[in-house]
Every structure is written in structure tokens, then in C-alpha cells.
Amino acid sequence: MISIDEARRLVMDRVEPCPPVNVSLAEAVGHTLAEDVKADIDSPPHAKALVDGYAIRVADLRQASVELQVIEEVMAGQVPTQSVVAGQATRIMTGAPIPSGADAVVMREQTELRRGQAVEWVTISTNEIVRGSHILELGASFRMDEIVLSAGTLVRGIEVGLLGEVGCAKVKIVRPPRVAILATGNELVHHGQRPDSGQIRNSNGPMLVAMTSRAGAEPVDLGIACDDHDELAARIRQGLDNDILLLSGGVSAGQLDLVPEVLSSVGVQTVFHRVRLKPGKPLWFGAIGSSSKSTLVFGLPGNPVSGLVCFELFVRPAIEAMRGRPNISVMESYVELVGNFSHRGGRPTYHPGQMRVAVEKTTVLPLQWQGSADLRALTDANCLIQFPAGERFYGPGELVKVRYLDAG
Questions:
Q1: Burial classification of residue 324, based on how many CB atoms lie within 10 Å of its CB (0-12 exposed, 13-18 middle, 19 or more buried)
Q2: What is the full DSSP assignment across 197-264?
Q3: What is the pLDDT of residue 291?
Q4: How much is the pLDDT for 253?
Q5: Is the pTM of this model over 0.90?
Q6: What is the pLDDT of residue 397?
Q7: Residue numbers of the chain with a pLDDT score lower than 50
Q8: Distances (CA, A) of 378 to 94, 351, 353, 370
Q9: How many helices, marked H, and strands, marked E, lie in the chain?
Q10: CA–CA dist 326, 360 (Å, integer)
């Protein structure tokens, strides 16, 4: 057996980002930029008003209250036709260009309008206005040819807005990895089918499909394969057309645990088998292909919690790196334990926990858990408590390390 850290290093050493693809702006959400994005214009393209009010000359505000002649009104999308000179003001709306001659905007709420027979006058009674008040200068957000988003940026709704502002109708992203999922075992039936005696529903397959999708990859559900060498080999070859192949079950030491043998027979090279980890000890990992196109293969334990833990520790980081996000930090922290817990065994353990966030402090409660086949307990979990190897009693208030689980 190897350590968790060594296993993770061996996985990550074989990960390469997926190639870039061009997609529409709407399709870029949730993906990683594959190249820097430069602005093709200045933003804003002109000095503009940040409030509704009056564009004025600060030099005119020499006394507590002044009255200025309103020479025109400029709405957003319009262009001023007159320059502001001494004793004048332009009524202006948010986003409209600042007329030449003006160097500040007074909010409408700080003014009083008087209409004459042929002209309008605005009274300004504030001494809080300085040069540049309520004006966003030309290019204040960014200038033309400036890098506004760097390669490796995750595209969210915010980034979509910025990409639209710089005229990106098409965006180059890192292609999300395609992850094939194959559940194995003679005892498995489709999750929509009622199992007969000796059978169980396939819960691992749907779980891994969902987790793969949540991790930002494209799942390819290969269904269920029986514990038969030829059938497994055919389905595995199908899965090897993808970036990652996840097999669930068939990697322990039982008579029908054929996965490692079949993988070897189709040319997949073993990197490691078994990790000093609980649950998840039987994990198998290998790879096939050249440096330009390879497929990573994970043989996950068949017990569902073991599979989940191995996915979180090893598969999810590989997916993130393939998406062009290799340095995404895992959400971990130390919090106070609630209740007692006795840890036994020579392997580090990831135990389901329920973290409770309160104003005064954050605590975590170890959940009642029947072992790696008990998926029900994990529906109440929002984290995994990391207990180091060795026998030890943990009491209330002790600090323990927790790893957050995906909330989606």
C-alpha cells in the first residue's frame, strides 16, 4: 500500500489539461478560459455620468448657492452638442457622456430647477462637489489591448458580462474532460428495476455520473457490466475513448474481482493498487496512451462510500487539472469536535461528519455510520472528518480537520 499523498502525486503527475475549443459566450459558463482575453475598446469609451443630475464647472461654485443656466439635456446613448462654459449646466442622465467644459456632476437631489419663459435655471446649494464628482473617466475600467481576463479564469455570469463588454462572441475554453463511468458486478441491476434475491440496485453509477457533472466534466454513462472477462474487456475498450474511465467495483481480492486483470489485458498500465486509506483501500489507478493522448483509469471500490471518498481525494483533483484549474485549493479547516469519537486502525480515516456553523463557533459532529456500504449516513453529512492513523480517543472540544463535501 502507498500513502494518500503519494497516490495523489502519482495521479497528478499523469494529468494534462484538455485541448482548447471555441464556444459561444453562453456556452462558456462554468468552463475555464484557455487564453488571455484583451479589450478591443476603452471602457468606458467616454467620460460618463454616474448619477442623474447636472454637469457643471466646479469653478462656478464660488459661493454657497449659485444659479446656472441649463443649456441642454443629454440622455444615455446621446452625444452632447454644446460645451459647458461659465454660468452654464447640462442636465444629464446616468451613463450619458460628459459634455466638454464640465468637470463634475451634481446629483439631481442636490438641486432645484426653475423654469423661465425661454430658458431653465438650476440652483445648486452644496459645497460637497469637487472636480471629478460622479464621473467615471474614459478608460477607468480598462483600456484597449489591456488583458481583462487571464487564461485559467473560471467563467461565471460576471465574466460573461465582461466578455460581452469586450466583444467576445466566441470564447476559447479548455474542453471539459469526458469521463466514462462503468459499474461492474453480477449482482447489479438498473436503479429503476426492482432487485430479485441476491441483487442490488446500481447506486454507484448514478452517484458517480452526478459527481462527475458537478465537478465540471462531461459524464458518459456506460451502464453495468457483468463479471465476465470478455464483456468487461469490450466495455472497458469503449470507455478508453474518453479522457478518464471510472470503474466501480471489481478491484478487491475476491474471486470475481476481475478489473485489474482485464485492464492489464487491454493494455492499461498499472500505476498503483491499494492506498493506506479508510474507506477506499482497494483503489486501483492506471493509464494508457501516449503523451499526446492518454486516458486515466480509476478502479474505484464497489462500496459506495469508498467510491465517494476516492472520487473526492483523487478523481476530482484530476478533473480540475484537466479543466485547466490545477491549483484549486481543497476546502479544509480545523473545527471543534462535538461528542466523543474513538478511532482504531492503522489507516487514516475519512468519517462522515455534520458541520454546524454558528456565530460563536463552528463545530462538527461525527455521524453514526455503519461502514463503507452505508450511503444513507452520508446524506446527512456535509464534510468528512480526517482522523490520522492509530488508535486514539477524541473528546469534545478537540480540533479535528474536516474536508468539505460538495453542497450541490
A1: buried
A2: TT-EE--HHHHHHHHHHHTT-EEEEEEEE-S-HHHHHHHHHHHTTSSEEEEES--SSSTT--HHHHHH
A3: 61
A4: 67
A5: no
A6: 95
A7: none
A8: 52, 9, 8, 11
A9: 7, 27
A10: 34
